[in-house]
Specification:
The chain is 41% helix and 18% strand. By secondary structure, the protein is an alpha+beta fold. A hairpin with a 6-residue loop joins strand 8 and strand 9.
């Protein structure tokens, strides 16, 4: 697949123009474009510009409403429930994590449960959002049914991503993972390139493990991480998201023709307010140092979650962001 190297400012400007053409205000288009462009800047290519066309399609279908923002439904101490009003998923998520951090600054912990929202695109964005403000960030979302329970033939679970971010002076840690071995965005890129997954990605029609992303996407048969353990964790995430927000479960989301009306939870903890500063940095450093000190196999290296992100970001700022030529040309044609 042929790539072009696009400067960050040019990528953001083009994305913003595309958003304004479908009804975003200038300020919202700028925020949304920034999130998309930063996703590609950080090397998460499956959830950046490659997903942009799908967002435009959802807007034109009336599933994503550019002029809507979350509204408060209820409040109980450090816990709040909000209705996303089917607004842009990444902007809704960004606002929700901001609100969770505001609550954490007041109470030590803040929790925002968000119903009736849309796909949040790169979930790790909101983990980075928290750690860059010195907060621990935890968030998760449910999805449409796209993963079978262990030993099941049909998908009844979502791959329900989970994000955990921990701030650290020597380098923030941000885990961003779906409950499937591969996110569907990654599978889509592999299929587009005609490549097989490096590890089993899902199940075929006979229940056998397969590396073929096309089969997995066709059957919605993604392999749960940890097999039955990942399937169980996916179910629990769906339960928490739906119960805390009062919104849709994966079962409910599956009734719509397009993936919409998701439920999400955003949690922030402030180490300063919680009185953890005396040991927080020292303990984090000791744990990471020990982790990285493990002997690796020949030609391999040990990395913690998020360790490579800043290196990728700096490289792409200096040399340009890799974007598939076909994807870039399609965007520019839509802007004419």
């Amino acid at each position: 697949m042929s790539d072009l190297l696009i400067p960050f400012s040019e990528l953001k400007k083009s994305l913003q123009k595309g958003l304004e053409s479908v009804g975003f205000s200038e300020s919202k288009a700028s925020q949304c474009a920034e999130l998309f462009a930063t996703t590609d800047l950080d090397g998460v290519r499956s959830h950046g510009i490659e997903r942009f066309d799908r967002l435009l399609q959802y807007i034109r279908a009336g599933v994503v409403l550019p002029d809507k923002s979350p509204v408060l439904l209820s409040k109980a101490g450090f816990f709040e429930r909000w209705d996303g009003q089917l607004g842009p998923g990444n902007l809704n998520a960004q606002q929700s994590m901001n609100r969770a951090m505001e609550l954490a600054s007041e109470n030590g912990i803040g929790c925002v449960a968000l119903a009736n929202t849309n796909h949040w695109m790169r979930g790790g964005s909101y983990g980075w959002q928290a750690v860059e403000q010195g907060k621990i960030g935890i968030c998760f979302t449910n999805t449409m049914p796209n993963m079978p329970a262990w030993d099941a033939k049909e998908p009844r679970l979502g791959n329900n991503p989970l994000v955990i971010g921990i701030p650290r002076e020597g380098g923030h840690l941000v885990l961003d993972m779906a409950m499937s071995q591969f996110a569907y965005g990654k599978l889509s890129r592999l299929a587009e390139a005609g490549e097989q997954a490096a590890f089993p990605a899902g199940l075929d029609e006979k229940g056998n493990l397969t590396h073929d992303p096309k089969i997995v996407m066709q059957k919605q048969s993604a392999l749960p991480v940890g097999l039955w353990k990942g399937a169980g964790l996916s179910l629990m995430i769906d339960l928490l998201a739906a119960l805390l927000s009062g919104g849709n479960s994966t079962k409910d989301i599956g009734k719509a023709s397009l993936e919409t009306g998701l439920s999400q939870v955003f949690i922030a903890l402030d180490p300063k307010v919680l009185g953890l500063e005396a040991w927080f940095e020292e303990k984090a450093e000791a744990i990471v140092e020990d982790y990285l000190g493990a002997e690796a196999f020949a030609g391999k290296s040990v990395f913690y979650p998020g360790q490579q992100t800043m290196k990728t970001r700096q490289r792409n700022l200096e040399h340009g962001i890799p974007v598939a030529k076909k994807t870039w040309e399609k965007l520019l044609n839509e802007l004419k």
